[in-house]
Amino acid sequence: MLDGLTNAPASDLRIEPENVLDPRHFAAVRAQGPRLHALPLWCYSSPKFFQAEMERLFYPGWNMMERVERVPNKGDFHTLTFMNIPLIMVRGSDDKVRVFANTCRHRGAVIAEGSGNCKNFRCPYHAWVYSLEGDLLGAQQYDDGEDKPIVTDANKREYGLIEIPSESWGGFLFVKFRKGGESLQDFLGEVPARLASHRLEDMVCTKQLVFDMEANWKCFVENYSDGYHIPTVHKDSLARWKAKYTRQAPPPSGNYTIAFAEHDGSQLLLPFPDYVGFPPMPQIDKEWARGTFFTTIRPGMMMTMGNDGALAFRCEPIGPTKSRLTVSSLFPKSTVARNDFEEIAKNYYRRNDMVVREDVDISLKQAAGIASPFARMVTLQKLEKPLNQIANWVLDRVIGKDAA
């Protein structure tokens, strides 16, 4: 049986092939023209394809992890598990924020939990002590069978905590799990310059929503860029906005997309009388003061940036059919200092409770449907073109740009 829309066996779209990295599986995705295609359905559930994404896309690439403000003072630390890897972010005695693998260099025990402030880290298993900069300070009674110390001044540097490469932009901390490759500045391309006047670095996170989803990470990322679903999924929320998409970044060869919707107000709210918000930030460039930016920094960071604040999304892969979505509400420090901040901010939060949950729910419904033996992926509609761009960006990194 053939699927006439793809000229490939219909079952092949759902069932994982033996060689998931064979470029021939993606011929329809690679083909460009008026009729475009997304990835085969098995790319949303295949353990082999997921592992290739982790090894070739996520581990060597830059991933938005947290806000630097999580550790504002020297000695502040915050632990988290990111993409199944236990990590510590800490502000050192030199005021620099670093990220370390949260695992003792001796026998691998987690050395810190939760958040707080400390002068050093002490492993709970054998009391190895590490500085805030990751250096091993002491390993008590760590002698070999001849009572000679295993750790000496000559080799002590070899036993420090493993530092994860990290850089920051706009108050966001990015990490990569493989050394080398392009800098964060090169990775972000034109994004910092285009969004500079919003001054993300001067904002703070006032609330987070976290969703553990039974869905591949691409489900939500694609949904954020899918304009076709808005009249249906958001018929009583975002669809009520009347916006003119007059400015959009040219199709990038890099790792991001930027679109600008021109309208009155802020899409961090809903266009209803009872959604009272904060005034626009005075420093925004005049051409961007009336409208909302929609930005995707691949693979898993998205931002909705109004003239009054920002909403940042992080979609984190957990497994082939599992992901974690973290949604952060950001406002300027001067706005948060207002006496009426908490009251007005409720309007932004209830907008998120509605709109984000609509997107999460539909992502879960799509993921559940993909599991069906009768699931099919057909030609994309014109407002779904970004899904093909996302697919090709993934394939460029997972199977190679020149693979044919």
From TrEMBL:
Listed GO MF terms: 2 iron, 2 sulfur cluster binding; iron ion binding; oxidoreductase activity
Domain Rieske: 62-175
Pfam family, one: Rieske
Record-linked InterPro entries: ARHD_Rieske_2Fe_2S (IPR015881), Rieske_2Fe-2S (IPR017941), Rieske_2Fe-2S_sf (IPR036922), Ring_hydroxy_dOase_asu_C_dom (IPR015879), Rng_hydr_dOase-A (IPR001663)
Cofactor: Fe cation
Lineage: superkingdom: Bacteria
UniProt KW keywords: 2Fe-2S, Iron, Iron-sulfur, Metal-binding, NAD, Oxidoreductase
Keyword Ribonucleoprotein in record: no
Full protein name: (2Fe-2S)-binding protein
Native species: Hypericibacter adhaerens
